[in-house]
Amino acid sequence: MPGRTVGPAVAVLCALAVPWMAAAATSVAEFESGQLTGVQTATSVAGYRGSGYVTGFDQDGDAVEVRVVVPREGVHEVRVRYNSPFGEKGYELTVDGVPLGGMLGRTGPAEWAEWP
Ligand SMILES: [Ca+2]
C-alpha cells in the first residue's frame, strides 16, 4: 500500500494500524518513523507506541507520510491512534493519491483514542 499523508491541524498522532479484512494480522506503521514536514517527534505524553509520536500540526502543509506494507492488494481497513486534548482537530488523509478528510474527536490529556 501506499504512502499515506496526514495533513494540517491534527494535534498529536501516534500510530497507523492497517488490519486487512480476510486475515487476523495487522500491519502497523509508526508516524515518528515517517517523513515529517513541519512537525516534530515527541515523547512527553505517556502511552504512545513505538519510539514516540508526531506533534506540531499547526500550519498548512504540516504533514507526515508513512509507507504501509500489506501482503496483497485489496480492501484494507485503516486506523489511526491519536491524542488531541485541546479539542476536535480537522485532518486530511491521502491514500494512494485519494484524499479524505474529517474531524478527530477530543481526547483526555493522557488518553489515546483510535480513529475511526
Ligand atoms: Ca508511535
Quick recap of the structure?
With 116 residues, the protein is mainly β. It is built from no helices and eleven strands.
Whole-number mean pLDDT: 80
Percent helix = under 10%
| H-E string | EEEEEEEEEEE
Number of domains: 1
Number of strands: 11
> Which residues sit in consecutive blocks of at least 5 with pLDDT less than 50?
1-14, 19-24
What does this structure look like?
The protein has strands spanning 3-6, 12-19, 26-30, 35-37, 40-42, 53-55, 63-67, 79-83, 89-95, 98-104, 113-115. With 116 residues, the protein is mainly β. The protein has one domain (3-107). The radius of gyration is 13 Å and the shape is globular. It starts with a strand and ends with a strand. It binds calcium ion (CA).
Annotation keywords:
116 residues, mainly beta, six-stranded antiparallel sheet, five-stranded antiparallel sheet, 11 strands, disordered N terminus, binds calcium ion
Furnish the topology, listing elements before pairings:
Blueprint: E1 3-6, E2 12-19, E3 26-30, E4 35-37, E5 40-42, E6 53-55, E7 63-67, E8 79-83, E9 89-95, E10 98-104, E11 113-115
Antiparallel strand pairs: 1-7, 1-9, 2-3, 2-6, 2-8, 4-7, 5-6, 8-11, 9-10
Calcium ion binds next to strand 2.
